Amino acid sequence: MSGLEKVEELLRNKEKDILESWIKAQLENISTMRRDLISNTDLRAESINFLREFTIAIKLGVTDDVTGPEYDKIREFLINISRSRALLGFTPSETATFVFSLKESILPYIQEEYKGDVDELLRVINGVSNLLDKLGLLSFEEYSKGREEVIKEQIESLIELSLPVMKLWDDILAVPIIGVLDSKRAKIITENLLNMIVEFGAKYAIIDITGVPMIDSQVANHLFKTIQAVRLLGADAVITGIRPDVAQTLVELGIDLGEVVTSAVLAGGLEHVFKKLGYTIEIKR
Amino acid sequence: MSQRIPIIKIGENLIVTFISDIDDLTALRLQKELTEKIHEENRSGMNVSGVLIDLTILDIVDSFLGRLISNIAQSATTMNANTVVVGIRPAIAITLVELGLELKGAYTALNVEHGIEILNDLKA
Questions:
Q1: Given a cut of 80, is residue A60 above it in pLDDT?
Q2: What pTM was estimated for this model as a whole?
Q3: Per CATH, is A5-159 categorized as 1.10.490?
Q4: Which of B65, B98, B108, B111 has the highest number of chain A CBs within 10 A, making it the mutation to test binding with A?
Q5: Cβ of A233 and B85 within 8 Å?
Q6: Starting at the edge strand that comes first in sequence, how are the strands of the sheet with B106-109 ordered?
Q7: How confident is the model at residue A32 (pLDDT cuts 50, 70, 90)?
């Protein structure tokens, strides 16, 4: 064993004192304490739990590797705290400080305990520091993972949000595409559009590409595939919002839109579809 | 053990409904029987002007089945009958496009009702 059992005993005996001084230190440290993000009660609860887990961990004594199964519990606890803090909007240093700040609150008690024995004091401090440092790094890592998840979710919701399919008229759907059309977005657009066609029993889809900054052969290919799929369902698609520069690029690249009906503006496409469906537009004065 | 898909005649139209777990043999047999049926009807003086293929309950399509549907449509067309494929699900449509199968020569419609309308319009 590591000989840190005595420290465990010390931590257990002085739990109250250590806890109070630690929480006080955390609350007083304005640069890393975010009162706007976490309540005193939550902080207290987290601190109590962490100190308790830490006391158990120190007994195990292996201070240079916290990946073993015996550390599962404290790891899991730290993972939860770090991720929830990432979601709450804490910075990485604020999150890691939660772990590191415990060191300062424990050391005075250890110093007191081992006053006479310098060698033992150094050894114990080394062990405690080591373990806390490892746990601090772990919280840092988990914090980043939590953040990455947030970013991923946001990207996904952004993709979804930016691709609406709307009902324009009976039998007519409109799909305004805004932003770069890559294969991932093209897939989502196609799926959304096809599902809506089935749901509404639509006969025509107007795909508006006014908001697509650049059209190359790949983007044109995506559009073609979408239109082919729409046709397989028994509907037809019209492309509108072809800007002058886009028209020139298409011609220069030798992309032939073939049978696909195209129009410079959305209104042109709508008019074409109205005509196909037998609607006439009458202006009453 | 291959199943059989019935070929139903209504007026001048033939209707076939694919089953959800159609296997290759059944599909091949259907292709053969459908062309024979068109031929038979024509020989006995009954005109077949349209073939309606209903894929509403088809769950999954592979390249073999995709090509076969395309072939059925084309062989019906060469026998002077219009083909309309109805009820293609979004997932099936995407698969067919990815496989590069456009169902050339066949019309498409959302459901059987629209499909019959198209066949009647084409005949008129």
A1: no
A2: 0.63
A3: yes
A4: B108
A5: no
A6: B7-10, B13-17, B50-54, B82-86, B106-109
A7: low
